[in-house]
Amino acid sequence: MSDSFGVDPLPGLNCSALQKTAQVVEQVQLARDTYRIRLECPEIAQQITPGQFFMIRPTTGCDPLLGRPFALYDTYVDGNGEPAGVDFGYVVIGKLTTLMTGWRPGEEVEIWGPLGNGFPLAPAGHLMMIAGGIGQTPFLAVARESLGLRTYGSPARQVAQPLSKVSLCYGVRSSDYLAGLADFEMNGLDVQIATDDGSAGHRGFVTELLLQAVENGDAPDNIFCCGPEPMMHAVAEIAAHHEISCWLSLETPMACGFGACFSCVTKVKLDDGNWDYRRTCVEGPVFRAECLQLS
Ligand SMILES: Cc1cc2nc3c(=O)[nH]c(=O)nc-3n(C[C@H](O)[C@H](O)[C@H](O)COP(=O)(O)OP(=O)(O)OC[C@H]3O[C@@H](n4cnc5c(N)ncnc54)[C@H](O)[C@@H]3O)c2cc1C
Ligand code: FES
Question: Phi then psi for 213, rounded to 5 degrees?
């Protein structure tokens, strides 16, 4: 028996994830305190889809002992067009992310994935991706897939028909935190920026860009959102009020990443109206907004 989260409600582990030692290919700074690392790991790159994530830890030492979750930014391909590895973006906040800033090409790290459900293939209509801070990382691959510029997964999944519009609303504290904007320059993607201090784009919250779109008669049909919980809460409320389908990607702290420890549970509403808990690492990190109780 499975519920609308598509899984057996009895605890099961994600046994399809691969654990690999991968080499750092490059590390580049994207913005203030924000970097992108490229890892060579063809097996994971061939399978992963937008919105899925992987766990990363150093191969040596025990501080930190546990891996940390990072979303797929994009895959990169080899000379034959085959996926050869993954890129992820990170912002420096603590132990591992500080350590990562010292990782250089040739360094070996441990990676396990792909993990989690990821975003669904974008349904027809206008897709608006709404990102807060480092929450923009899953949306490069979503944008490329939605516009038919790249495929992901094995077998490769593809949007059934071109979307009528794909937009990204991206909010950060100030312009120096805007990460990877050049990567998001692609035909067909409408990018709108919001900064708290007005140093770039709209001065104010990224949610105000959504409200403006609604007021201008350009409301999206579907929203994919990732960022701080209060921002996702606000997006979910606006979406519910205007009857817009909305999916949220949670960044709940995790210990194992594959369903064993239950450190990542989040409260979800079941089909029968009752509330229960689901593991963000297996049944998420992407949930329909109406199923979640955010703070
Ligand atoms: C599915 C998923 C995808 C993610 N993708 C990305 C990504 O692409 N890029 C990125 O930069 N980050 C991402 N994160 C968050 C990332 O995992 C954390 O930033 C990372 O674990 C921090 O590790 P650290 O060792 O540097 O910090 P720690 O030393 O573990 O923690 C430092 C401080 O940050 C707090 N903290 C740690 N993790 C989180 C969190 N998830 N939310 C809020 N506070 C936290 C701790 O409580 C502590 O106060 C993702 C998280 C999840 C669950
Ligand atoms: S992180 Fe261990 S069950 Fe999710």
Answer: -60, -40
More reliable by pLDDT, 159 or 264:
264
Ligand 1 near 69 CB (within 6 A): yes
Distance CA 269, CA 98 (A): 37
Tens digit of each residue's pLDDT (9 = 90 or more) over 226-260: 999 999 999 999 999 999 999 999 999 999 999 99
User: For residue 14, is pLDDT > 80?
Assistant: no
Instruction: Categorize the per-residue pLDDT at 184 as very low, low, confident or very high, splitting at 50, 70 and 90.
Output: very high
Mean pLDDT rounded to a whole number for the chain: 93
What is the CATH topology of the domain spanning 18-115? Elongation Factor Tu (Ef-tu); domain 3 (2.40.30)
Q: Six-digit token pair at 13?
A: 């582990």
Task: Check: CB of residue 154 under 8 Å from CB of residue 47.
Answer: yes
Q: Does ligand 1 have an atom closer than 6 angstroms to the CB of 134? A: yes
Q: How many CB atoms lie within 10 A of CB 203?
A: 12
Give dist(CA 92, CA 220) in Å, integer. 32
Residue 88: Cβ-neighbour burial (10 angstroms; 0-12, 13-18, 19+) = buried
Question: Per-domain residue ranges for the chain?
Answer: 18-115, 126-291
Q: Looking at the structure, give the CATH architecture of the domain made up of residues 126-291.
A: 3-Layer(aba) Sandwich (3.40)
Task: Using most ligand atoms within 8 A of CB, pick from 14, 66, 264, 268 the residue to mutate for ligand 2.
Answer: 264
Percent of the chain at pLDDT exceeding 70: 95
Residue 257 CA: which ligand 2 atom is closest? 1
**By the 8 A CB rule, do 217 and 255 touch?**
no
pLDDT of residue 121: 95
